[in-house]
Design brief:
Blueprint lengths: L7 H11 L5 H9 L2 H12 L27 E8 L10 E5 L26 H8 L3 E6 L19 E2 L2 E5 L5 H9 L4 E5 L6 H7 L2 E4 L20 E5 L2 H11 L29 E5 L10 H16 L3 E5 L7 H18 L14 H7 L11 H17 L2 H21 L4 E5 L15 H9 L7 H5 L3 E9 L2 E8 L5 H12 L8
Parallel strand pairs: 2-3, 2-6, 9-10, 9-11
Antiparallel strand pairs: 1-3, 4-5, 6-8, 7-8, 7-12, 11-13, 12-13
């Protein structure tokens, strides 16, 4: 690859798109002044790209046969055996398919990426392998992770392990489904609007969205730097704490990691909860599309915590109801500028840029019609908003985030956690093959009311299964103070070990 001096026609086209009025003489003048820039770009092109070394051998990814993939939760299976000893020795882990595993295909749910082969391992991949884990492949996720349902992947919907006609939740759909089915011990999920916690609620797994920046995002496809989170999805709270213990900490690359604070998360397991205080959030219940039975199951879970000695009191945070609205300009304009127009990374931060991904991903522009309806909707409105208003609503939303964060912090000053339903309903029916766009969009975004606010405020949030309604799991969400995942694990573990949630 090399950079060439633009032709006069190319430069005229660029000038028009930038709003410049240049005469032919101006174009020729500017063209003549650009040779130094061309030389600099080509000098950079010849330099070595200092990417992290890939240290563990692996098998090439192979797509399992249909009969071996009944939930359509696997993208590819591969085997990467980690160190001989470590905290995760004996544990199998599947990666959400937006996590880079060198030499193994990654499509991030989109046909426009099919055929891409990463040349680096994500930081968290190396950490898990160093801790003795065996990585066993990649799990399907939604098209560029832009859906709360499990129906937008280019390779078809992921089915719920409790009822294959129902959604597994999204966008970490395959990760939660494979853990719930017992095919893997642990999984990695990503969470920008609730995508670890929502599939955990639908599938009956434990999902932690850590404090923003606690887990390095290096080598994971970004959506929007200020809402990107990665974290563990597991069958038990104990395994979740164990995996987070391995994942957490600065890696020297990820600019999301500012003044992070790491703990021994497993030390929170088994602690007494008597005397702890939990705030039951009034506005977390009774949304217009909430299911009463699902809400009631979470209230029953709160009573179980009370029986364990926890003080539970209802509180009101009216601004919580505006959380999804505040998220919208940040999420839509951020993802469009960074993930799509910015070739996956955008600019202006000192991260590790995986240029092989950037080169491959640019091809979406010639195949945009293949993107999911959920992603198209977000991009269309984001570009319209940008054309009409620039970035003012993006900026104003960030200003308001500070007020929202302060409202949660004011409650957390007096309580150990805030409790609410993870999602407002149990797993929804999967849209049919010929479903109208309106149904696809509805199923894609209808469950993020309680989860999305904490992606923009950055508080840690843990979803724990707390019972079933008509055979489908219900999730209880516990939200904690910044960097205080350990307290959430203490509460979650006490709740989990107090009985068998599958019979509640």
């Amino acid at each position: 690859m090399s950079v060439k001096l633009p032709t006069e026609d190319q430069l005229s086209d660029v000038a028009k798109r930038l709003g410049f009025s240049l005469s032919p003489e101006d174009v020729k003048s500017f063209q003549g002044l650009m040779q130094g820039y061309v030389d600099a770009y080509n000098a950079v092109d010849l330099m070595i790209d200092p990417l992290p070394e890939v240290t563990y051998p692996r098998t090439p990814g192979t797509r399992p046969a249909v009969e071996d993939n009944p939930l359509n939760a696997w993208y590819v299976k591969s085997t990467v055996t980690g160190a001989a000893e470590g905290k995760l020795k004996g544990k199998t882990v599947v990666l959400k398919d937006n996590v880079m595993l060198a030499g193994v295909p990654m499509m991030n749910g989109s046909s426009t990426l099919e055929g891409y082969m990463p040349n680096v391992d994500a930081t968290i991949v190396t950490r898990m392998l160093d801790a003795g884990a065996t990585i066993v492949g990649k799990a399907h996720c939604e098209c560029f992770c832009m859906s709360c349902g499990s129906h937008t992947s280019a390779l078809g919907p992921v089915c719920n392990p409790h009822d294959p006609t129902r959604s597994a939740g999204g966008s970490s759909s395959g990760s939660a489904a494979l853990v719930a089915k017992g095919e893997v011990d642990m999984a990695i999920g990503g969470d920008q609007g609730g995508s670890i916690r929502m599939p955990s609620a639908f599938c009956g797994t434990v999902g932690m969205k850590p404090t923003h920046g606690l887990v390095p995002y290096t080598g994971i496809v970004p959506i929007e730097i200020t809402v990107d989170h990665a974290g563990p999805i597991t069958a038990t709270v104990a395994d979740n704490a164990l995996l987070l213990e391995v994942l957490a900490g600065s890696d020297g690359y990820d600019s999301r990691q500012i003044d992070i604070s790491v703990s021994d998360y497993t030390a929170g397991l088994g602690k007494p909860v008597t005397g702890m205080k939990v705030a039951l959030l009034k506005e977390g219940f009774g949304h217009p599309h909430s299911e009463t039975a699902s809400d009631d199951k979470v209230r029953e879970a709160a009573k179980r915590l009370e029986a364990l000695g926890v003080t539970v009191e209802e509180v009101s945070i009216p601004l919580h109801l505006m959380g999804p609205a505040i998220w919208t300009p940040i999420g839509l304009q951020g993802l469009t500028q960074t993930m799509m127009l910015g070739d996956g990374y955008g600019t202006s931060r000192p991260d590790l840029y995986v240029t092989s991904f950037m080169d491959f991903h640019r091809g979406w522009r010639q195949r945009a019609d293949e993107l999911s309806e959920t992603l198209k909707l977000g991009m269309l409105f984001a570009q319209y908003a940008d054309d009409q208003h620039g970035k003012r609503y993006y900026g104003k939303a960030f200003n308001i985030v500070k007020t929202l964060r302060a409202a949660y912090d004011a409650v957390l000053a007096d309580y150990d956690a805030i409790l609410m339903p993870t999602v407002p309903m149990v797993a929804t029916p999967l849209p049919g093959k010929d479903a109208p766009r309106e149904e696809i969009i509805q199923r894609g975004f209808e469950i993020l009311n309680n989860t999305a606010p904490f992606d923009i405020t950055h508080h840690p949030a843990l979803s724990v299964p707390c019972g079933k309604v008509d055979g489908l799991p219900v999730g209880m969400m516990l939200v904690g103070k910044m960097w205080d995942e350990q307290t959430l694990y203490t509460l979650g573990h006490a709740f989990e070990t107090s009985g068998d949630w599958t019979g509640w």
